[in-house]
Write a structure and sequence with these properties.
731 residues; alpha/beta; Rossmann fold; Helicase, Ruva Protein, domain 3; 5 domains; six-stranded mixed β-sheet; 31 helices
């Protein structure tokens, strides 16, 4: 027999068989018709009542003995034989038959397929609605009912009882929502036989050759392919060998779930894609956080649609970000998710940092946990080198090393950053294809985790080294901090200190000194020098009067900081990192718990944290011991104050050439922050006067700053004639 041309040809042949079955049953039914056809379905005649009373239990009326017996089924048998032969020939030639794939994917019986085809008939030709209404003796019943399906496919009581189980909630047709059981009127209990059947829209589209995803899951899923093999992944040798063994052996396991555990910067999805490539499968990636938000009322039903779609696409499932279900509010969702894993495709991947508690209860599947470490400095640097080879750049080897140190990216994040850098270069100059180091840094900041913005305030870097005035040794300390970041991976990875330290691999710095001495400016300069974002933690959003809430807020900040490649800046840090007190009541005990929790997170954090405090003596000694650097910001001496006075002015600011900066530095003992305020206030006074900043404006602005600071001032304190004050005060 010739093979079917394609899957649609096979479907139409099967529909021809269903059509013939319906025609035979209608012919038999017509022999019983005695009442006026004009009123058929609108009333029940006495003759029909007598017939119903004589009908044996479970037998369709058209198969009763007095109807002359069933029609000759030879034509139907011949058609079935011809379809079967063509199907086997098609499969032997590798022609995809979607109806056959549906049978295999969901373990459907011949009855299941025929019930589905009966529903498909009305999707292909609306005339079947009228035929079904005729067979069901009701002009309003245009959809096929369960009773009609049983009468057509299981025309005896024994067969009907067995076939009813194929419409139970656990049967494949219903469990995977291949068909829907509808009640009319809706939401009112009704017998099983009176319910209607409808083929699911996605199944109809699939059988007709559609390739797209189910529209109900499209907003939080994507179908991915990979051109990368396992041996090409930038992984440690032992992990790569383990994955290769798994790829070769998992063919023998009917159902496998691999839990990929590790930080966000690990390439879990790339690993899953490479394993799917080995199995000649695609990967259906599900964003669990968006799934939970969008499908909360029908979470379990949506999981079924996802499992079904994975089978239809011959894809493995990748559950991305399962930790979104770990909150107490979504505890029920997590339980439902774990229970549904057993009904998924033959291969699934779970992306979650934490261990799934109920994984041990899964009996019907093989469950693996693979712990993935962060990509090492050497792996990141090699990935950067490989990515840069495809583009025109002037990037030097030491620039690549700094990118690998400062941005702890995964392989895919580096590739995405390169694409963004290319777009930035085109935006800057459409005619140039050259990517600069500035483009790369900006792209890396774009691809760093931006969720930290919801928890802290981002400070835009605007200061440079020549903007700050500090004693020479303090400036050297700040540069040493930058070098600590630049050469961190050389010391830890190449020179082996990583193996000597279990914790404390981050960088924790304390800036201590009076207000206005340059602590925040120094943090800004360090962030600009390193090319990293600086986030200032707002203590009002962190500290809570409710027990345990402060720790939760801090946990969110540190969790996001792990992947943000940013510097955390705690201003007024003594409010959080203060000394622990003697426990006299429950409040003291919980306050000490907060401090202990901070100690733990600071030691575990591998990023950069800068603490600023006006009162170093208030800091807990346990924090001080964990600091890598402590920079004291002294009150500026006279020479430093003069340098600040000279550097505070913008170049465009009109100034009297006779301004006496030496006098201002000697006479007024103020910090750099105060000097900045005085200069700004003097500029506004000058704008309202003659447009040029003179000594009279500076003296008046200084007087206002002293008053703001709560200092008593007099004209004699300023060492200038009273007329200068009168001249300004009269305005």
């Amino acid at each position: 027999m010739p093979a079917f041309k394609d899957s649609l040809a096979h479907l139409l042949a099967e529909m021809e068989r269903i059509d013939l079955l319906i025609r035979l049953q209608i012919a038999r039914r017509c022999k019983l018709q005695a009442e006026d056809e004009q009123f058929r379905g609108l009333y029940i005649s006495e003759q029909e009542v007598d017939g119903l009373l004589r009908k044996p239990l479970g037998m369709p009326q058209w198969l009763m003995p007095q109807s002359g017996g069933p029609a000759d089924p030879s034509e139907l048998s011949q058609l079935e034989h011809r379809i079967s032969a063509c199907k086997q020939e098609s499969l032997s030639k590798g022609i995809e038959l979607r109806l056959e794939r549906l049978r295999q994917f969901f373990e459907l019986t011949r009855f299941d397929l025929d019930a589905l085809l009966i529903c498909m008939a009305v999707e292909l030709d609306l005339r079947y609605e009228r035929l079904y209404a005729y067979l069901q003796d009701d002009v309003a019943r245009k959809k096929p009912g369960i009773e009609l399906a049983l009468n057509l496919l299981a025309p005896s009581l024994e067969l009907s009882v067995d076939a009813r189980q194929r419409f139970s909630p656990e049967a494949p047709l219903v469990r995977f929502r291949l068909i829907e059981l509808l009640e009319e009127p809706p939401h009112l209990p009704s017998p099983l036989l009176s319910r209607f059947l409808k083929a699911d829209d996605r199944i109809v589209q699939y059988l007709l050759g559609a390739e797209g995803l189910d529209e109900r899951i499209r907003s939080f899923t994507e179908l991915a392919d990979s051109d990368q093999d396992l041996d090409q992944l930038p992984l440690d040798t032992d992990i790569k060998e383990g994955l290769m063994r798994f790829a070769n052996e998992m063919q023998h396991s009917p159902m496998v779930v691999m839990h990929l555990q590790g930080p966000h910067v690990t390439d879990k999805q790339s690993i899953a894609l490479a394993l799917c490539r080995h199995r000649h499968q695609r990967l259906l990636v599900v964003d669990v956080e968006r799934l939970a938000a969008e499908a909360e009322p029908g979470f379990g039903k949506t999981l079924v649609l996802l499992h079904r779609e994975a089978r239809l696409q011959h894809a493995a499932l990748f559950w991305k970000g399962v930790e979104a279900l770990h909150s107490e509010q979504r505890r029920g969702m997590l339980i439902t998710f774990m229970q549904n894993l057993e009904h998924g495709p033959s291969l699934a991947f779970v992306d979650a940092d934490a261990t799934l508690e109920s994984a041990h209860a899964l009996r019907g599947i093989t469950y693996f946990t693979v712990t993935l470490p962060r990509p090492s400095f050497m792996q990141r640097a090699q990935t950067w080198r490989n990515a840069l080879e495809e583009y025109e750049t002037g990037i030097e080897p030491h620039d690549i090393a700094e990118l690998a140190v400062k941005f702890k990216f995964s392989h895919s994040q580096i590739e995405n950053a390169m694409i963004t850098a290319r777009n930035l270069a085109r935006w800057r100059d459409p005619d140039s294809q050259r990517i600069t180091l500035r483009d790369l840094y900006e792209a890396c900041r774009v691809h760093s985790n931006q969720k930290l913005s919801a928890l802290a305030h981002k400070i835009a870097s605007k200061y440079q080294w020549n903007d700050i005035v500090l004693p020479l040794d303090r400036t050297e300390q700040l540069r040493e901090i930058c070098n600590h970041v630049k050469y961190r991976d050389r010391v830890y990875s190449e020179w082996g200190f990583d193996r000597k330290l279990a914790m404390g691999k981050g960088l924790c710095v304390l800036f201590a000194g009076p207000s206005g001495t340059g602590k925040t400016m120094s943090a800004d300069i360090i962030a600009g020098e390193l090319g990293l974002d600086l986030y200032k933690i707002d203590l009002s959003t962190v500290v809570s009067k409710y027990i345990g809430e402060t720790e939760k807020n801090l946990s969110r900040i540190f969790d996001e900081a792990e992947t943000s490649n940013a510097i955390l800046f705690f201003d007024e840090a003594d409010a959080l990192f203060g000394k622990r007190s003697e426990v006299k009541d429950s409040h003291d005990r919980y306050a000490n718990i907060e401090t202990g929790y901070l100690l733990q997170r600071m030691e575990e954090h591998e990023g950069i944290v800068i603490l600023a405090s006006n009162f170093r003596k208030n800091m807990d000694e346990a924090f001080v011991r964990r600091l890598h650097f402590t920079v004291e910001f002294p009150f500026p001496a006279e020479d430093d104050r003069r340098r600040i006075w000279e550097a505070v002015w913008p170049e465009a600011m009109p100034r009297d050439p006779n301004l006496d900066m030496a006098f201002l530095a000697k006479r007024f003992h103020v910090t750099g922050g105060n000097i900045r305020n005085i200069a700004l206030s003097a500029a506004f006074l000058a704008a309202d006067d003659n447009g040029i900043v003179g000594m009279q404006h500076l003296i008046r602005a200084t007087q206002r700053e002293y008053q703001k600071m709560g200092k008593l001032v007099s004209e004699s304190d300023f060492g200038v004639p009273p007329k200068d004050f009168v001249a300004i005060g009269s305005r």
